Amino acid sequence: MMHRMAIAVLSLLGLLVSLYLWLWKMGWLGDLACGSGACETVQLSRFGEMLGVPVAFFGVGGYLGLLATSLVGIQPTWQKRRSPTLWLLALSAAGLAFTAYLTILEAFVIRAWCRWCLVSAGLIAVIFALSLAGFARWPPLPPRGEPDG
Amino acid sequence: MAVGGGKSFYLALIVIAVVGAGLIWSQRGSGGAGATAVAIADLDSIGSTFEGYVIGRSSAPVEVTEFADFQCPACARHAILTMPDVIQRLVRTGRVRWVFKDLPLNIHDKARSAHLAAACAAEQDLFWQMHDQLFYRQSRWTRDRRAERRFREYAETIGADLDRYDECVRSGRYNSRIEASVQEAITLGVSSTPTFVIGNRMIPGVIPYDRFKQIVDSLAPVNPTE
Fold this sequence. Notes:
The complex is a heterodimer of chains A (149) and B (226).
Chain A: H1 2-25, H2 38-43, E1 49-50, E2 53-54, H3 55-73, H4 83-110, H5 115-137
Antiparallel strand pairs in A: 1-2
Chain B: H1 3-28, E1 53-55, E2 62-68, H2 73-91, E3 96-102, H3 111-122, H4 127-136, H5 138-141, H6 147-157, H7 162-171, H8 175-188, E4 195-198, E5 201-204, H9 209-219
Helix pairs in contact in B: 2-4, 2-9, 3-4, 3-6, 3-7
């Protein structure tokens, strides 16, 4: 269960980072602690929102989902079940794909690097790697009729 | 999971959550009235000849300079959600003089044209009307390949003399002034839009009306006997 515990910690960190960016975007915080000012450039660009929703809010939702799933996965009744690992893998893969898209935009379109976005990108990459490792280490599915763990 | 290990794990999660939330909360205090006082050059000392597009009385005790980009979604949000309150409660009451300055960002392909359209509308004393058209209809023209045609429609909507408007846009005579405004922003250290300069404070990002009022109150308190 170590990978689920590690994912829970990393998801919480990611949640805090995206919450920070979202609250800033909504105008509830003061200056963005970024250093170069590139965070503002990225956040306030036309790619800072998607379908009218700040991109950081998708991060909040995604990390909340990962945190909740990993916490459920370490509960005694779920520890030996495979489904939390599958959910973690699916969620982190979607998160990684979305982050890759945003990182490409930063590199080639916006041409500015938001450090907090890079921190989030690093976190989701590690979370995906841990999910993959957890999935790979799982024994083959049991015959029908038995618990899936 | 061992019971002891479980307890320390949850304890660690709680500590991270509390510390993180505390750090975010501490940032809340750095905005608005307590906004970071950035060591910026005096706007007057920059030497820009163009004062900006002004609304409000020259006798107002507080001057707010906004650097904005007509194609920036956050600037549109400010213009639509915050600006009406600012104008009604702070500008019209004589407490604030609002100055709008051009800062079209290179990442926005139609921003320069939009700022030129606004400058040409300003030539006919219709800047703020064009300002509203551009921000309120931003989502339409940003996706339009012929955005300039849209701008012309907006000029017509606000009652501009189209012959004069067309001649102005064709001549591009305000392009250098727009560029000068961009350079002024760079000199001040403005790196994103919208950015507000209030006194010696530079505040990047969208801030709600209450925060503006808080800052204005701190700079020019209202006399309760008035």
